[in-house]
Amino acid sequence: MTALLSDRPATPAAFPSHRRVTAYVAGGLDGVLRVVSMLRGRGYKVRDLSVQVCDGVVESAVSCTVALTAAETTLLVQRLRRMPAVVSADEV
Fold first, then answer.
1. What is the CATH number of the domain that holds 31?
2. Terminal-to-terminal C-alpha distance of the chain
3. For residue 47, what are the domain limits?
4. Cα distances (Å, whole numbers) of residue 69 to 4, 8, 38, 81
5. pTM of the entire structure?
6. DSSP assignment of the chain, as one string?
7. 22 near 67, Cβ under 8 Å?
8. 13: in domain
9. Most buried among 9, 21, 33, 57, using CB within 10 Å?
């Protein structure tokens, strides 16, 4: 009889879970819209999204919860950091 499952147990990092990512962007609402457009364009399944744009402040914050594996989360943070409007991005 052939085993269909691997002998090694799956690691939690291999399964999608809700992960919170925050990006700080320059350019006010334009920068925020670029981040949101990237999330939509790449097909990320965003569970919730919050935006903080304040008049007179250099950076705005975009936070979202997305169902991702650990590797996909790393890729999302890298993609955000490559965007010109993004000052910094991290998994929270």
1. 3.30.70.260
2. 45
3. 18-91
4. 23, 18, 18, 18
5. 0.83
6. ----S-SSPPPGGGS-EEEEEEEEEESHHHHHHHHHHHHHHTT--EEEEEEE--TT-SEEEEEEEEEE-HHHHHHHHHHHHHSTTEEEEEE-
7. no
8. no
9. 21
The pair of structure tokens assigned to 27 is: 């350019």
Tell me how many domains the chain contains: 1
Which residue is associated with the tokens 């919170």?
20
pLDDT per residue of the chain (92 residues) written in tens, 0 to 9: 555 555 555 666 678 999 999 999 999 999 999 999 999 999 999 999 999 998 888 999 999 999 999 999 999 999 999 999 999 999 99
